[in-house]
Amino acid sequence: MKTLNFRLILFIFALIFGVVFSIPSLTQSQSGKKITLGLDLQGGLHMLLGIKTDVAIESRIKSMAASIKYLFDDEDIIFDNLRIEDGKRITFELLDSDDVPKAKALLKKELEGIKIEPNGLKFTVEMTPEEVARTKKNAISQAVDTIRTRLDAFGLAEPTVAKQGEDKILVEVPGIKTQEDEQRIRELIARAAHLQLMAVDEDRNSRVETMSPQEARSYGDVILEDVNHPRKYLLHGIQILDGSMLTDAKVGFDQNNQPVINFTLNGQGAKIFGDFTGKNVGKRMAVVLDNKVYSAPVINERIGGGRVQISGNFKLDEAHDLAIALRSGALLAPVYVMEKRSVGPSLGADNIKASLMALIFGFVLVVLFMVLYYGVAGVIADIALIGNLFLILAIMSLFGATLTLPGMAGIVLTVGMAVDANVIINERIRELLHEGKSVAKAIEEGYDKAFTAILDANVTTLIAAVVLWAYGTGPLKGFALTMGIGILASMLTAIVGTHGIYQWLLPKIDRKRLGFWFGIKTEGKK
Amino acid sequence: MEIFKYDKPIPFMRYAKRFGLLSIVLVLLSLGLIFTKGFNYGLDFAGGTLVQVHYDKKAPIDEIRKAIAKDKNYENASVTYFGNENEIIIRTKNSSKSLGKDMGDTIRELIKDTGNFEIRRVDMVGAKVGSELREKGIMSLVLAILGILIYVSFRFEWRFAVASVLALVHDVTIAMGAVVLFGIEVNLDTLAALLTILGYSLNDTIIVFDRIREGIQISKKSDLAEIIDESVTQTLSRTTLTSLTTFFVVLTLFLFGGEIIRGFSFTLLVGVVVGTYSSIFVASPILMWLGFSVKEYRLKQAEKLKREKEKEKMRAQYESGTL
Question: Which residue ranges in chain A fall short of pLDDT 50?
C-alpha cells in the first residue's frame, strides 16, 4: 500500500479536530467550548424590546427646568413664566433687562448641551440635536445595563441582553420553567422602579377624593393612588428624594411576619431624610413607587441613619423582584415589546427529538444509498460525510454558536448536499472507466473535471447562505450558519478527503473488480 | 449498481418547446394564484399572537373556543388542532406592547377551566416588526439573486447567468404558487426554504452548465442543441441521484421533523422537484433561445488564448532583453 499522502493526512487531521472539538458539545460537559442550544430547542424567552427614548428627553428637560429655577433663585435673577413646551422646550421671561447677559452666562456655564435663543427678555432653551441624540443613546445603554443587572440578580442561567440596531434591545432568557415564572421575569424587566419619597399635603389632603388634577396642580401638588386600596393621596409635587440616593434594598419581615423591603440611603440621602423627618414630626410621608403610593406612615420622630421600609401587602416573590428592581436602579425610559417568542421546556425537548429523528433517518438513508449504489466508493463518500458532520459540530462549538431548529434543518440539508460532490466525482470516474481509462487516470481526471462544477455550485449556494445570514434574524441566522459551515467543510471532506483515501487505496484497487470498488460493470474500451 | 449508463444523447432539446410551454403555464398559474388568493402570511410577517397549548388528553376545542370568546379582544381568535388532537394553537391578529400581563397570560386565565394543560409556546410579533421582517425578506431574495447573477456571468457568460436566473425565478415562483395553493403559512422559515431552493436549484443548473461549457470546448459538434443534449444526458445520472437523496432527506424532515418545520420542509419538497425539472428542461433551452452561439464563443475563447499567448511572448522577450 502506498504511504500516506498529504490529502489523507489533512483529512485525518480534520477528522481528529472535528471529533476532539465536538466532544464537549456531544457530551454537554461543563468544561470546554460548546454549542449552545437555541431557545426553540431548550425552551426560554426571546424578546425584542422597543424603548420610548422621548420619555428620557422629557425627564431630562424637566430636571433642566428645575436646575434653572434653582440657579436663578440662587443668583437672585428675577424671572417669570418658566414653562416646558411640548416636552422639549423650556421658556421663561426675565423681568430686568440688566440680568440678560448674566443669565446667559450662567446657563452656558451650568447646563451642558443646550441652545439658548434670547428674544428680548423672552428666553427659549432647547437641547442641541447632539445632546438629544446623546441622551437617547444613553437611555438605551442604561436600559440594557439595568435589564442585565436585574436578570442576573434574578438568578437565571446566562441571560442575554444586547442592543440591537439603533434603538432596540434583544433579551434572551433560557431555562424558564413555567409561564408564571416567565410573567414574573417580564414584569421585572418592565418595572420602571422609580422610587420617590414625597410629603403629604396635610392642609388639603382631606379634600383629595373630590379634587381635580388641575386644582391639585394649582397648589403645586399631585394626586396619586394607593397601590392596595381604592384611596388617593395629595402629595407635594416636589419630592423629598428619589431612588438615585439608594444604596441597597433587601427583603425583610415586619412584626406581623409580612414581607417588606428595607432600603438604605446614601450619606446625602440620609441627611435630607433625617432633616425632613425632624422638621415634619406628626405629618405623613408617602413612599411612592412608579407613581403608586405603597405606604404613608405618620412620622413619629426624626429618623437618622437613612433606613426606610416599604410595606405594601407584598407576596414574597413580589418583594424579592421589587428589591432587585430597586437595587438595579430606575429605567430612564420605559420599554415595550415589539416581538416575543417563548417556548416551554417540553416543546423544546420535543423539537430536539423530532429534528434528531429527521437527521438520523436522513443520514442513514443517504449512507445506505451511497454504499448500495457505489460500492466502496460509496463507503468512502460516507466516511467523508461523517467527517463533515463532526467538522460542522466542531466549528460551531469553537465559535460558541447557537444551534436552533432551523439550524438542525440546515445540517440535515447539508447531509443531502454534501454527498452531491461525491456523486459528481463518482459519476465522472465511472464515465472515465467506461471510456477505458486506467483506474489511476480515471480518479485523477475525475477529480480534476468535477472540481469546477463543485466549486461553482458551492459558491452559489454559499452566496445564498451569506445573504440569509446577513439579512436573517434569530433562528434564520442559525440555518444560514450551519449551511454555510457545512458547505465549506464539505469542500475539505468530500473533495480533498475522499481524494486522499483513493490515492492511499489505489494500489489495492483491482481493475477486474470495478463492481466492488465503483459499483459498475465495464468491459473497458468499446 | 448503475441505473443511468451513458449510451447516446437523449434528444431533450427536441421537446424543448413543449416543456417551455408547460413551464410558462405553471408559472402563469402560480402568479395567478399568488395575486388572486394571495399568501397566507403567518405571524412573522403579519404580526399578531400565537399560543400553543398542550393538553394531557384530547383538547376540548369547542369549550376552549367558548372560553376565549368571553373576552371581547379575542372574538376573532382562531383555535385549531396542531399536529395531533392534544395540541391546539390559538391565533389572533392582535399583539400587546405591555411587558407585564400579555396575551399569553390572559389566555392562560381564560382557559383555566378547560382541563389539564400546559402552555408550550407564546409568540407575539408587533405589526412594525412584521413589516420590517417582510422588507428584509424580499431584500434578501433580491440580493441573493443579484449576487448569483454576478457570479455566474463572471464564471460563465452573461447568457448563462440570465438563463440560470430565469430558471431560478421559475422555480421560486412555482414553489410560491404551491405554497399559496396548499394554504401553507408564510413565515421566516418559508423564506429560508425559498432561499435554499434558490441555492439548490442553481446547484443543479450550474452542474449542467459546467458540462455544456466543457462540451463547447471539447466536443466535435458545433450545434448547441446537440451539445446540450449530450451534456444533459451525461449529467442526468448525477442530477437524478442527488435530487433523489436530497428529496428523501427533505421527505424525512417533512415526515418526522415535527409540525413546526412542516411549512419549511413542504416548500423544500416542491422546490427539489421543480429545481430538478428546471435544470434539465428549462435552463438549457433558455440558453438556446437567448441566441448563444457556439462558434462565436469558440472564436472568443481562441482570441483570448491568442492574446494571452502574445502577452506571454512579449513578457518572455522583455525578460530576455530583446525588446
Answer: 524-526
CA distance A355 to chain B (A): 5
- From chain B, the residues in CB contact with A471 under 8 A are 136-137, 139-140, 143
Does A19 contact B at CB distance below 8 Å?
no
Choose among A361, A449, A521: nearest Cβ to B256. Answer: A361
Residue B4: which of B227, B236, B302, B315 has the closest Cα?
Answer: B236
Domains of chain B: 12-40+130-292 (1.20.1640.10), 48-125 (3.30.70.3400)
Distance between B26 CA and the closest CA of chain A, angstroms:
25
Q: Give me the residue from B5, B189, B252 closest to A361, CB to CB.
A: B252
Q: How far is CA A83 from the centre of its chain?
A: 39
Which residues from chain A sit within 8 angstroms of residue B95, using beta carbons? 337
Would you tell me the crossing angle of helices A475-490 and B188-218 to the nearest 10 degrees?
30
pLDDT digits (tens, 9 = 90+) for A341-391: 888 888 888 888 888 888 888 888 889 989 998 989 999 999 999 999 999
**CB contact, 8 Å: A431 with chain B?**
yes
Which among A433, A422, A416, A454 has a CA at the least distance from the CA of B210?
A454
What pTM was estimated for this model as a whole? 0.75
- pLDDT at residue A390 in the model: 92
Q: With contacts defined as CB-CB under 8 Å, which chain A residues touch B45?
A: none
Point out which residues pair with A232 in neighbouring strands: A225
* B36 Cβ neighbours under 8 A, 6+ residues apart: none
From residue B244, give the alpha-carbon distance in Å to each of A268, A422, B173, B207, B248.
76, 14, 22, 16, 6
How far is the C-alpha of B76 from the C-alpha of B74, rounded, in Å?
A: 5
Put simply, the answer to whether A338 touches B264 (Cβ < 8 Å) is: no
pLDDT for position B297: 80
* CA distance linking residue A416 with residue A198, whole number of Å: 68
Q: Is A383 on the interface with B (CB under 8 A)?
A: no
Q: Give the pLDDT confidence of B142-189 residue by residue, as tens digits.
A: 888 888 888 888 888 888 888 988 998 999 999 999 999 998 888 877
CB-CB neighbors (< 8 A) of B96 in chain A: 337
Going along chain A from its start, the domains and CATH numbers come out as 6-40+344-518 (1.20.1640.10), 44-186 (no CATH), 191-339 (3.30.1360.200)
User: CB–CB of A342 and B252 under 8 A?
Assistant: no
pLDDT score, position B323: 59
Rounded mean pLDDT, B228-239: 88
| Residue among A186, A413, A424 minimizing CB distance to B99 | A186
* Alpha-carbon gap, residue A107 to A112, rounded angstroms: 8
Please give the single-letter amino acid code of residue A316. Answer: L
In B, minimum Cα distance to A462 occurs at B199
Percent of chain B with pLDDT over 70: 99
Contact assignment for B253 to A338 by CB distance below 8 Å: no
Chosen from A171, A184, A337, A520 to mutate, greatest number of chain B CBs within 10 A: A337
Residue A339 region by backbone torsions, left for phi larger than 0, else alpha for psi between -120 and 50, else beta: beta
**Phi, psi (deg, nearest 5) at residue A378:** -70, -40
Residue B42 has pLDDT above 50, yes or no: yes
Cell representation of residue A14: 480534520
* Other beta carbons less than 10 A from residue B299's beta carbon: 11
Q: What is the DSSP string of A31-56?
A: SS--PEEPHHHH-EEEEEEEE-HHHH
- For A:127-166, CB contacts with B below 8 A are none
Q: Please tell me the distance in Å from B51's CA to the nearest CA on chain A.
A: 9
Could B126 and A427 be called an inter-chain contact, meaning their C-beta atoms sit closer than 8 Å? no
User: Mean per-residue pLDDT for B229-234?
Assistant: 89
Grid-cell match 410595606, residue found: A311
Confidence of residue B11 (pLDDT cuts 50, 70, 90): confident
